[in-house]
Amino acid sequence: MDRFLIQGGTPLEGAIAASGSKNSALPALAACLLTDQPVTLERVPQVRDLRTMLDLIRHIGAEVSTDNGRITIRARELPHPEAPYDLVKTMRASSLVLGPLAARCGSARVSLPGGCAIGARPINLHVTALERLGAEVRQEHGYIEACAPRGLRGGEVSFDRITVTGTEDVLMAAVLASGETVINNAAREPEVVDLARLLVSMGASIEGAGSSTIRVKGVSRLHGASHSIIPDRIEVGTFLIAGALTGGDLLITRCEPAHLRALIAKLHQAGVEVTEPTPDSLRVRAPGKLKSVDVTTEEHPGFATDLQAQFMALMTRAEGISFITETIFENRFMHAQELARMGANIRVEGRQAIVAGPSPLSGAQVIASDLRASASLVLAGLAAQGETIVDRVYHIDRGYEKIEAKLAGLGARIRRIS
Ligand code: EPZ
């Protein structure tokens, strides 16, 4: 199993370009199943979750051709409209094919995902939403089976709580349903907006993406399109925090600052200088001293849960007490214990972590438990004195493109070892 060997203590300096967004590319690939014509996606990051999604799309029966970050999918026929357990268990986002397959094929079979390191993460909201569009859904042998032999019909969907992939799933189903669909309490994440943009370029009629009410007028078929995936705001946020934590000076290009307002505001409060030299770049410079700030994760445009672990690593070096409250997932503090092994002073009480700083971090052997937790441990290792070994970096490979090459290019001393 691969590990990272990190020699900490070097400030990150220089420039890097953001990769395309993993969480935008995943639903975009699922959306390609909605038409029999070719859809080309540019700027798809080369990360493990995307490779898993491509395996799933091939399994379903679509043709896939790849050329670096450009991927063309042609879903002429879909002989196997299902997401088998072996793929779903390695990547929960496989459930994103449920809506498109039900809409295009009139039937879909998707394995239930089971538990996950960061929380229970059920897909009951996806199921209820599809039922609102007329699908008959049953659960058997660990699979969800959705059936709509005469096609889906538009309806009103009101989510009990905001769900990102749930919104994306039902949006993809609604574009081919007959009549109008209204999605209330929809997720407002930039990835939902990007998906809507792709669907519109394929011929869909969608209004309101990015707000909490999305209206869709179903069409009978969609056509091919070409689409460029948005920059990965979580990758960019991770690099902003890395720059601040290591006392560096970083320029991140090809990014979308508007997607990161909540993080930038918190960095400013902590005393970190973040500027926008151009409309698509961000520069971060670290102060001598960091101030502690409180953070509560929220749905977009609030502070992203996917940046909570990295921000906690930053707060270990800040002066004072920081209260970090996680409201999206019930078990997303696994990194706290590992950070404590590096010298951080963190107490977890239910959904709140209390970080008392500043702590001088020292290198240690730590274990990554999930994607963003592993990013926080890498960041802590970069800031720590001495050597850190981060175990189970397959988690980080799920979602960060060429992470060690990018960090090494900024002066980090990081090496992958087997
Ligand atoms: C998406 O997951 C992201 N994944 C996650 O990215 C991200 O952390 C999360 O949104 C929140 O922003 C992708 O986009 C592929 P949710 P998703 O449905 O859609 C509960 C990363 O590190 N819920 O918005 O699965 C759920 O348990 C990750 O890249 C239900 O109860 O998250 C959670 O508590 C991991 N029933 C809350 O809602 C459902 O049917 C929000 O989850 C669906 C969700």
Architecture overview:
The protein is α/β, with parallel strands linked by helices. The protein has two domains: 3-18 and 231-417, UDP-n-acetylglucosamine1-carboxyvinyl-transferase, Chain; 22-228, Enolpyruvate transferase domain (UDP-n-acetylglucosamine1-carboxyvinyl-transferase, Chain), CATH 3.65.10.10. The chain is built from 14 helices and 25 strands. The strands form six sheets. Strands 18, 19, 20, 21 and 22 form a five-stranded mixed beta sheet that branches. β10 (156-158), α6 and β11 (180-184) form a beta-alpha-beta unit. α1 runs parallel beside α7, α4 (98-105) packs parallel to α6 (164-174) and α10 (308-315) packs parallel to α12. It is elongated, with a radius of gyration of 21 Å. 53% of the residues are buried. The model has no long low-confidence stretch (mean pLDDT 96). The structure holds ligand EPZ. The site of ligand EPZ has 24 residues, from α1, α5, α6 and α12.
